[in-house]
Amino acid sequence: MRDFTWKTAAALVCTGVAFFFAGTAQAAELRIGVNVLPVLADPVDGARDLNQDYMAILANYAGMKAVYVSASWQENLARLQSGEIDVIANITDLPARHAFFDYGRIPMSTSKSMLYLRGGTQMFDRADRTTPLRIGVIRDQYTSPYLGMVLAAEGFPYTLQEYEDRKALAAAYAAGRIDGCSLDTAMPKSLQPAAALQADPVYFVVKKGNQELLDRLNSAASRLAMARPMLYADLYDLYHINTGGEALMLDHRERRYLEEHPTLHFAAIVNERPYSYMDGNGEFAGGLRAIVDRVSADLGVTIEIVPVASAEDAYAALADGTADVLLNSRWSPGWAVTHDYKQTAPYMTSYFTEVTRRSGKPEHPMVAYWSARIGDTTLAKHFDKDQLQHYDSVEDTLQAVADGKADAAYLRQETAQYETFAGQFPGLIANGTVAFTTRTAMTMPQDADPALLSALDKEIAHMGQEVANGAIAEERQKFLKNQSIGAYFYNYPQYFFFGAGIVALVIALSFWRYRRMKKRTEAHLQDIIDRDPATELHNLAWIERVGSPIVTVSKGGKDPYLAAVAVHAMRPDIIAGTYGREVLAAVCRELGRDMELAPWAVHVGTRTSSAEVFALVRAEEAVLVPALREMLRKHDAQRVGRMLVRIPLEAGVCYVGDPPMDLKTAMNNASLAAHGARPVGIFNSKLQRETLLMSRMESIQEDALARREFHVWYQPKYELKTKRCIGAEALVRWESKELGFLPPGKFIPLFEGNGFISQLDFYNLEHVMQFQREAPGKGLPVLPISVNQSRQHMREEDYIERVRKLVAEYGTTGVELELTETAFDVLGEAMRAHSIDVVESLRGMGFSIDMDDFGSGYSDLALLNQLPLDVMKIDRSLLLASEGSGRMRIVLEQMIALGHALDMHVICEGIETEEQEQMLISCGCEYGQGYLYGKPMRRADYEAFLREHA
Asked: Is residue 295's pLDDT more than 90?
């Protein structure tokens, strides 16, 4: 028993007093040192991980506010000693560290030491086992002692190569100087895990001797553990299960076992649809079929099903060796030990519901069950022994309830739904409420090879529960599609053997009863189909179904005020990724309910998947638009914890009679009108024409590119003082066989949105490179031509490789690439850094790099330092602003001077008057581009222009 002294008591009292005052004053900051991991994969929901989330919650319980301080491991150690930070998280307990730290009393989580190899576990299959594997580790950091044991078991010699930090290790891997690494944190997806070495508890630490803070955090951790015992499991689900499951890494024992046992026999209890059953062809079917297929594919073995009717038969099959594994048994580790079995981790959770007669059940019901383990354990806790009745099958159990021998039965929700809807038990109903849950696992004899158990456990962690849940949902949908009226009459043949008069009456009554029950069932199912599960309001499909007749009548009577309304959240993907999809669901729910109360609303529904609310309304525009503006203003903020988060909303309106259209078309048009409305837009004939044009352009874009309908035009650039041509900018025009001549403003935004701009950019770039290669042969000077490159290229994995192929064929002489600042306006520092690396690679190939539209809005001056730029192109908007403002002219002069100071050529776009030209000369600008000197022109015209002005 632990000693409890007066000093301990005093510390706890002081801590309690501190908590009291912390609750009445502004929360103190808890400065948490966060190790910078430059090679980590993209995190979930922002820049944090499981351990950082734990520390944020712990800080809340300690009455403090979490503040993260990012630094390297060495920097965090120094900051902790100097007092710049208070705590470091995710630290393994090593004796050598106790001289510097005081450890928290309760572990935060578990750190897994991993071995990463090129090719993952496939590296273990290579024939060469004489050349040592080069394994990288971090100097002065923990390396698992199991590393050598794992590699020795696989038959590989190895050498350790130490690096100062993870960045240096990643660089060594990229350069091919090492074959893999051993770390206790995640590495990028380019490194594939080969083996899990060791799992250790990790703790938070404070500076040695900071007892007051340690007591405060230990007390908070204790209260947190009691209040939220499943916190670690919840965070694990967030960062692992919901992001794709664990990687499948089989060790040498498991691989050898599977190689020696290419066929496994799984016993399956096949007496419960749609969970596990034999179909009409004698084949194993049901939701568990997907589990078998997935395990077979992932482990590379053939699985043969041994169908059995009961659990007793299944255990007999395990005992006599007919089966190696029981596929579907209730997960209970204690039961398994008692009965000399071992079980895998659970791979599916089942929700049980109550089935009763439609008339209900008495206060002291008789309960029928067919699974002995369910009855002996779960049901026995809630009912007396004399209330429980055991039956051999699901059908017998339900028949007992239907006959009145029992009052209720408890079945899986999917089974209950199937059996009550199939028609065999028309007098029974499943209430849908979850009464209790069970978890399903695989069971094998105690003497089964441990390699089989661990291989199956790893496979279950790899596939997650989504496989089973999705398969059972698919089986349920099959049943709902195939149910028919014959299922009802098949079960009541006696009615057809009465006399003529009696037969007619019975048929009439039976048909009436069937119709009544079918309508109830259909109404119940239709209500499920018609509702958005996240908001519990009606959905868009319901509005279109019930609203279409209203629109049809309206078109006949020419109701001028009937309209479709669509409201959506702007950038819902960003909001969901930052705050969670529940925030969008809450906005849709509250906005939908508020809209239902509006006097002008006819029908309202939501579609949470796209963060939209739809409505069929009846109101004139002068009334509807102000009402929508006020409603959007009321709901454009949502509380997330203690924060008030702004959720910008837009609305679109389409009147169904202008021109006449069906409701579905009106809803689509309203949704189009909402995009960019800020806040309310009205669909009109102009928007309709633009929509049709965009749709047609998108449908023919590929053919147009193949037919070379896109033509590169050239707008000259010139030296302002001498009027000498110094090059050109390549611009694209679409001369469509079907749509006629189209300027870039018509199709570039569309192509930017649908991704076709990538193909068009390469098309233009190749034409310009070809032009420059052919110019000397025509007696033309090779003057620089700049080609625009979309920001989408920054996200393309093969962009640099495709450019290299063009460079190999044409070279880069006289070719400049124009990029805008928006190419670097991306989410996350990692993507921004990647974009900068792309630009550096392009310049390394020999391209000159232009920064286009500089000064058009928010200009990130840091880019001038980070990017290897050759040309600064000043946007026309800054030129126009400088004409009427002395202050803006100073800005223009300084921007030109800045470009020159950074050794860049400075060119200004959009020069249309001689006054603008002279102003630029006086400001020190060297070069220009605009209609004053030359408009965009075809290739032949530009060649003639060059001969005259170059």
From this structure: yes
